[in-house]
Amino acid sequence: MLTEDEKELTEEELAHWVAFSLLNGVGPKRVQLLDERLGSMVTAWNASPAVLQRMPGFGPETIAAMEQGRKGIDPGKLLQKLKDDNIQVWTLKDSSYPVYLRNIADPPICLFVNGQINFSAFNNVAAVVGTRHPTTYGQKLAKEFARGLSENGVTVISGMAVGIDSLAHWGAIEGGSPTIAVLGCGPDVCYPSSNRKLFKTIVDENKGAIISEYFPGTTPEKFRFPARNRIVSGLSQAVIVVEGGTSSGSLITAKIAFDQSREVFAVPGRVDSPMSEGPHKLIREDRAHICTSHNDVLKEMGWEKVPGKVDGDRPTAVKLYGREKEVYDLVIAEPIHFDTLCERTAMQAGELSATLTMLELAGLLTRLPGDWYERAK
Asked: How far is residue 6's CA from residue 2's CA, in Å, rounded to a whole number?
């Protein structure tokens, strides 16, 4: 939670901002109107239907939904849960609320933050997004782009999905600047569960923050993820699409970014790869910037390159233990086949496959055609 010196709202006011964020049908514009007209979220929460109907945009259906929703919400208990779970909350009323996000058409009423981060201290922010099923080429570039940007002081944002998103977060962690994962569930819910190590690294090792507009404990649902994309873009000044098909969620994020007047970059790929169709479409039809390295982004955005940084420097990022370390240590200079790893580790195929997947998600191993594996370059 905010310290007493940093707090801009009383706890009672903050609790009622949080409560309003849980009401269905009462969006940011209506909440801001209530705050402006009534001067207090506490007053707004307790307003009678007679008072509410005098407000522009508060028709009978909205008032009825608000009346029903208030019955099942205790603002004080909500705030106590945030304290117990060590979750920060930024409201539209706070100066700590990210300025770029505040200015989109439908900013979240509240942002729930798992981790210690001061977003107002960041000058340069970029999102790196792409498919959940990247090629070897896409995996390599996602990490390289994110790492290169992070090394130059850029905060990298993504959605912590498997594939490009996860690799971007790991690359950013390697680069040394904070990374922010925006979830389509509560900020305390690790989704997908295969990203548990990434989740813990970001939060427990102070590598950035997990952010969501959904209250802690909210489960992941399919309909929440497109809404999440507007936050990924809204927090950023630039959005970089690495790979994705023409129906990829990353293209939805790119479209939102265009609508939000963000700079959009697309990484070109092989002309015969389905995963290149999305970026190529952005370049061809939507006038996205062609981007072949993180330096293109730095130059186009006017972000100063950090002196002394040499492209290709690669710090050690992830500590390995147990089975993961055992498998990783067997993949040395040359690619090694899955069956050979099975034989040398005496692991069952399912356990080995899961271990290899975790090493791939961490960006440490690359899978080659025919079930061969090599260390990521």
From this structure: 6
Q: Is 340 a domain residue?
A: yes
pLDDT tens digits, residue range 200-213? 999 999 999 999 99
Length of the chain: 377
pLDDT in tens, 264-280: 999 999 888 999 999 99
d(CA 110, CA 166): 25
Torsion of CA 285, 144, 222, 353, to 10 degrees: 130
Instruction: Answer whether residue 240 is part of any domain.
Output: yes
Residue 98 · residue 232 · CB < 8 Å: no
pLDDT of residue 317: 46
Say if residue 297 is in the same domain as residue 336.
no
- Compute the distance between CA of residue 254 and CA of residue 161 in angstroms, rounded to an integer: 16
Do the beta carbons of residue 241 and residue 265 sit within 8 Å? yes
Same domain, 77 and 145: no
Tens of pLDDT, residue by residue over 315-343, are: 444 567 788 888 988 887 678 899 989 99
Looking at the fold, whether 285 and 348 belong to one and the same domain comes out as: no
SS3 of 324-349: the string is HHHHHHHCCCCCEEHHHHHHHHCCCH
Q: Which residue has the tokens 């390295």?
A: 293
Cβ–Cβ under 8 Å, residues 279 and 241: yes
* CB contact at 8 A, 170 and 203: no
Query: Containing domain of residue 250, as a range?
Result: 119-301
